[in-house]
Amino acid sequence: MTRSRTGILVALAAAVVAAAAVLGAQLISLGSAPAAYAAAAFERTGPVVGPDENPLYAIRAVLQGQSEAMVKGDRDGYLAAFPVAAPELRDRAGRRFDSLTALGVRRWDLTTNGVPGLLNGVWRLPVSVGYCFDTPDCTPLPLLLDTEWTVAHGRVRLAGWEQTDRPWDTTRLTVRRGERVTVAGAESVDPDALGALLRAAEAAAPTDDRVARSFGGPPRRYHVFVAGDEEWTTWYDGETENAAAYAIPLQPGTADVVVDHRQILSDAWNTQLLTHEFTHVVTLDGNRPAPGSWWLVEGIAEYVANADGAALRKDLRAVQAYVKAGRWDGTVALGAPADGTSLDDTVARYGIALLVVTYLAQHFGEAKLFAFFTQVVRKGVSPDAAAGAALGADWAAVVRDAAASVRVAAAQ
Questions:
Q1: Where are the beta strands (DSSP E) in 5-92?
Q2: Quick count: other Cβ atoms within 10 Å of Cβ 20?
């Protein structure tokens, strides 16, 4: 049985009084009690493990208690399994709890994966985590983490918990919630910047909700994580060269958007940036696209963000310089910029992708464009086959005409 902090303190007080009486020493206050007393009392709480017994069932009981405590918002209950004598582990667990509850965690399902194995006095066991935010009626996001456990005084204790690269697991987040979007920033991020980004996110969401109707419907909520300098290099895939933000597909209907805090600028820019990223959320539907579809993935995001022409105005000058310098060979289906590509050339490639997708939308209509995207990106159909089925056109002719439209735009 997991005790609350109140229960532990009562036990500690009794231990301190007893020790003082035996030693004839002056009674010390609870606040100045040695850490050893806390550790000793702590080690005698929780599920019992018999001599030579595998702690699997005791571990399951601990994990069930942690799952329930997380959803109830019971911080003390969640931390109960983390040793008092391991403050760093407890502090990290506390930050995780604070961030998840601030985000509105509604499921935190911890289950064992296999049977613990003993090595050098430590029990090792993978633990499956299923979590989601905002509503318990969801398909939990899965994680598999390595854990380590010890048995002290016949009680099982968490000795190690693998840290993930998820934003909520690396820093205590500050959270701002709107009608459609949750924005969460690392501790180093200015809270005022989060408010500015939330305004932009709420302005972007209706545009992407409209697009989402062609891709199975909008997500229940968009989640945006704002990275400080350190987090930009460690969250998820880490820093993306020349990027201001990126979207990470997690599973169908769910993706996280990560924004570099240095890229929170004007309201117009912020809205354009998040409209682009939210397009990835609704069009990819949890899929990680093949590298060969980069032009279509980024082109459609720029297309949706270009409703007022701002995205094209941003990209066009770089496209003109790129084409004029002979760095574009006419390829329509561009791949992602190689490492070391300059920012101007990267912008130019985004602009070419935007112009190609705009050509498709203008000549075939959005409905056919979206059907073509679904075939190529989400179903893995070749552009050649998808053009016939979705566009009713020969792909070679489409490529020729789209390339010509890019050159016309670049010549302006």
A1: none
A2: 13
Q: What is the pLDDT of residue 37?
A: 54
Tokens of 374: 């679904």
Length in residues, the chain: 412
Question: Using CA atoms, how far apart are residues 122 and 32, in angstroms rounded to an integer?
Answer: 31
Residue 93: partners with Cβ closer than 8 Å, 6 or more residues away:
78, 79, 82, 161
Backbone angles phi, psi at 364, to 5 degrees: -120, -15
Question: How are the residues of the chain apportioned to helix, strand and coil, as percentages rounded to the nearest 5?
Answer: 50, 15, 30
Distance of CA 135 to the CA centre of its chain: 17
Q: What angle do CA 70, 235, 266 make, to 5 degrees?
A: 105
- Per the DSSP assignment, residues forming a β-bridge with 107 are 132
Name the pairing type of β-strands 122-133 and 105-112. antiparallel
Tell me the CA distances in angstroms from 111 to 82, 123, 142, 143, one per residue in order. Answer: 17, 16, 11, 11
Q: Which residue has the tokens 């552009």?
A: 383
Over residues 64-84, the pLDDT tens digits come to: 999 999 999 999 999 998 888
